[in-house]
Amino acid sequence: MIGRLKGILVSKQPPWLMVDVNGVGYELEAPMSTFYDLPEAGREVVLCTHYAVKEDSVALYGFLREAERSLFRSVQKVSGIGAKIALAILSGASVEEFSRLVQAGDIAALTRIPGIGKKTAERIIVELRDRVDGLGGGVAGIVPGGAVPHDPVAEAGIALQQLGYKPAEVTRLVKDAAAPGDTAEAIIRKALRAALR
Q: What is known of its domains (predicted)?
């Protein structure tokens, strides 16, 4: 199993990133919570990873914080939730925010995350309420920094669509969130926060 990667960040195009570890390029899928804090390409990064093997595929997921990886693994134990919804949860809310929503039994806020309907939200609350306490943790290891993409609005729109939002919804969210000079990560963060309200 691959539990941790330390190397040079080669590229980041939400939800994908590539890390070069001694000449081997590892392609990982990551939630937006990780993308917000990634350094610029060419800098060193340390990621906690989750290696998933299925009958027809192999996938590697990357997280800057152990708490994110723990939540990613925990939510997939809930019936009906797979990796795609687990990534959407981490992209739509921080570990602390998600824990608070589950503890408060806030079904309405949980259903605003793509892929989560009322019944799934209810299952999440019932099955995770006792397990979300104590999910915390620091950053696995990054060198601070952030690159400004060529077209942050377009990049944010693509990332939101890949997270499961419909094109009309993406257009509205990006339009409301984008401000002059914003990076794609900043636009996505504001859009996701607005979607949870």
A: Has three domains with a flexible linker between the domains II and III and assumes an 'L' shape. Domain III is highly mobile and contacts RuvB.
